[in-house]
Amino acid sequence: MTTRFERRQTILRLLQEQPGIKVSQLAELLDVSPGTIRNDLNALEEQHRLRRVHGGAVLESMVLDGAAHAALPVPSAEVANVAAKQRIARWAAETVEEGDAILMDASTTVQQMIPYLRQFRRLTIVTTGLATAMLLAQHPSHTVILIGGQVAPGGQAIVGQMGLDILQNLHIRTAYISGVAFSPELGLMEHNVEEARLKRAILDGVRQIVALVDSSKLDRVGAAPVLDGERLTRLYTDSDISNDCLAALRRARVNLIVCGEDTVRSHLAHDQDGDRKVVIGFANQSEQLPFAVDVRRGLERAAKALQNVDLVVADNALSAERALHIADQLIRRQVDVAIEYQIDFKTGSMIMDKFKRAGVPVIAVDIPMVGATFFGVDNYRAGHMAGTALGEWLQQEWDGEFDLLVVLEESRAGSLPEARIQGQLDGLQEVIGELCEEKKLSLESGNTSSVSEAQLVKVLEARPDVRRVAVICFNDDAAIGALQAARRLNREEHVVIVGQGADRRVRQELRRPGSRIIGSTAYRPERYGEKLLELALKVLNGESVPPAVYIDHVFITPQNVDHYYGAEND
After folding, report:
1. Structure pTM?
2. What are 313-359's pLDDT values in tens digits?
3. Distance separating the N- and C-terminal Cα atoms of the chain
4. Distance CA 474, CA 476 (A)
5. What single DSSP character describes residue 70?
6. Is the domain 272-376+534-543 a CATH 3.40.50.2300 member?
């Protein structure tokens, strides 16, 4: 049986992948009573891991591995505009890369990045902030270096330049900084000369400098200048920025990222004054799913390369209700074309009606929407590749036999992704023959690894004598969840799994000797962006486009993963 600790860790993982979840859903997934779930939620709330809401729970937005951010000795005057700072920090953290060496100053704005660094491993982080270092040190996979010197009044930061020698032996890729003021004419400024001098010293030689400045500090003047705006790689601010200030920053050719409550928009310095810019809205499926994140990053790279595109990004968060709200937001932003990546096919008609009435053409990613141009997966063919590979493995390793076939599906996604599952079943049958329906079990994956893990744990616990379990999956989140379930129960050798997507986690798993995920059909989400923008511009120019445009597929295995995804591209 699942232990209390394991159950509570599963609850936390579920909440990381979903905006919120109800007691009844948790009880069903974890196969315990609602009273047990309420006790778990109460205990986790006492540990500051989550917050109870009516009927369920949500994650605390600023909890770091059990330590509440609010427990830090931060002066209340310094946490003004915290909601805006959190939005800014979330998107600034997207510029961090796995294994990076970065610098973070002592500001409370930069400090808000810390929760969003949990997704990374092996970061080297240099900081002048005592509280920042304390929080970062709770992540054992990170190397945290605190620059030595005199402790500033209030005990939150180091001042003076006594410890700067350590930077001579470090290569810092990106510095994340803030200040008390920023103006197009004078750049970033600080309270006093010593603080500004320290920042100038630590930024010397850093190639990329990212400033996080909430709108209340824009177009203001501080006591001491830190650096000119032209030295900034990017400046992140919030959507309360005034139109006049926005125009002034664009005239100053500052790379500006404006972070709203639901959308984020780039204003790049290479845009020529007076040019008519194309505004493209992208509503992403979920910023918690690696595949969807790769799609969004590819779009951002493609938009930057085109130089005449403003990209407005939003997060549908796997929620039909939120997707409808985001559609309204994009219409208010007056986007020229909308790229919709949302999970619930039933909501597609309502979203399309909103855009149609606003005169906005739509491209639907992976989940079809009637009236939209489709782009993405050739679902049947992609599934067939995985099913055939699974059949060949079963023939070789288990003499073509299995005790149970688990199908981790996603009914919300509709008929086209359903073809992905059918393709796997047909490919499997073509190799090993007709499937016995009594041996097949279909389960909802929830489109997340945690739901898939919980579902398969229940199955494996209920059938301890089953020794040959084949698993086909809606996506790689389901594949990872299935693998985690088998590992949790020490039954890895009893399962064989094929995925869909070949995302970063699965590629890493395929490189592990003896992995029970034997392969995954690649959709190459990192290539979506270029093709999506090319398609969007054709639609806007009135060019003829086919009703459906498919990405090319290849089945990724331990034998070919490095051929298609070398270390420099992975």
Report:
1. 0.68
2. 999 988 889 999 999 999 998 999 999 999 888 899 999 999 999 99
3. 37
4. 7
5. G
6. yes
